[in-house]
């Protein structure tokens, strides 16, 4: 019987905050490089450099099985959705203020609640529907349709949020049945293959410092993911999930310091509505007997459990989220 001390929730919160901060640096570097290079080129090289450490970790994964999906159509949909979220998100960061992009991307937890109805059989009751509606009102406040011009960047940010929500819910649905490496490797391979095919038409020879920044983006994505994984290991999902909203603070800071961005009052109000709604959903689901499935908090947990299983480097069976009802 193990006598090791239980992980500290404070440590979990700290590592999660560090991970989300590194993601913010990752996104700021993407914005900087986007003034010189195509999004397709940035993604190709970032994925190429990220693939190396991820491949090493997956090769060390001792879980049995091959790389053939058990749910090929759902894996295909999830892979396509992940690549769509990645590409649209990267593009949005290159053309919109950082804080504005994050405000729209933070709509994903609201969309997870909606997608959980047909995909997870979730019953969403009045209070959570009210939170979704308030959050979507926040999206409209940020966009101000009819008052402010709706650009391609706004559309791609919303497309990224929708795609990310869909991919996350699919992970929640099949994550316990598919090998983790399958759900990690296919999106990376598809990204490199598709971006590599588009690369000849958009390629700009990068300087050595810029190539270093593309490599940094790739490595940061891996390191940030490991930090967030450790956060979810050490603290309840209902505590860790809201930590992602700290990225709006980094976005405002980086935008001000490096890109001369000054988010307006409407972005602030809309962000508050979106973030407040998302935090309410996670808090609501953390209470016992509210929901049998808890789509938002458990979907966050399932998404990072994929890579966590690889990082364990063992063939121990993974515990189903349904076996632990307390957040």
Automatic annotation (TrEMBL):
Keyword check for NAD: no
Species whose genome carries this gene: Roseibium aestuarii
Name used for this protein in its record: DMT family transporter
Spans through the membrane: 37-60, 72-95, 101-121, 128-146, 152-171, 183-204, 210-232, 239-259, 265-283
A Pfam family of this chain: EamA
Cited SUPFAM superfamilies: Multidrug resistance efflux transporter EmrE (SSF103481)
Top-level taxon in the UniProt lineage: Bacteria
EamA domain: residues covered: 11-143, 152-281
Matches recorded under InterPro entries: EamA_dom, EmrE-like
Keyword annotations of the record: Membrane, Transmembrane, Transmembrane helix
């Amino acid at each position: 019987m193990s006598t090791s001390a239980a992980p500290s929730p404070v440590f979990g919160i700290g590592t999660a905050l560090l991970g989300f901060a590194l993601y913010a640096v990752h996104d700021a570097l993407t914005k900087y490089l986007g003034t010189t290079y195509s999004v397709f080129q940035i993604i190709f090289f970032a994925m190429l450099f990220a693939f190396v450490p991820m491949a090493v970790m997956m090769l060390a994964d001792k879980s049995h099985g091959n790389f053939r999906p058990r749910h090929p159509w759902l894996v295909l949909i999830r892979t396509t959705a992940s690549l769509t979220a990645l590409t649209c998100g990267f593009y949005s960061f290159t053309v919109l203020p950082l804080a504005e992009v994050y405000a729209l991307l933070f709509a994903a937890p609201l969309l997870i609640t909606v997608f959980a109805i047909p995909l997870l059989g979730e019953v969403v009751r009045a209070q959570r529907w009210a939170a979704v509606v308030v959050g979507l009102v926040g999206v409209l406040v940020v966009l101000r349709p009819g008052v402010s011009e709706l650009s391609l960047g706004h559309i791609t940010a919303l497309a990224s949020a929708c795609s990310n929500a869909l991919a996350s819910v699919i992970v929640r649905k099949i994550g316990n049945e598919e090998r983790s490496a399958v759900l990690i490797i296919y999106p990376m391979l598809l990204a490199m293959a598709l971006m590599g095919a588009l690369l000849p038409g958009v390629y700009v020879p990068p300087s050595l410092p810029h190539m270093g920044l593309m490599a940094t983006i790739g490595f940061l994505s891996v390191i940030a993911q490991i930090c967030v994984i450790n956060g979810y290991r050490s603290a309840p999902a209902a505590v860790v999930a809201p930590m992602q909203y700290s990225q709006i603070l980094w976005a405002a800071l980086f935008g001000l310091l490096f890109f001369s961005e000054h988010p307006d009052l409407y972005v602030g109000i809309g962000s508050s509505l979106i973030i407040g709604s998302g935090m309410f959903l996670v808090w609501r689901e953390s209470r016992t007997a509210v929901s049998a499935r808890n789509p938002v908090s458990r979907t966050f947990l399932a998404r990072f459990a994929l890579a966590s299983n690889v990082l364990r480097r063992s063939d121990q069976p993974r515990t189903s989220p349904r076996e632990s009802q307390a957040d």
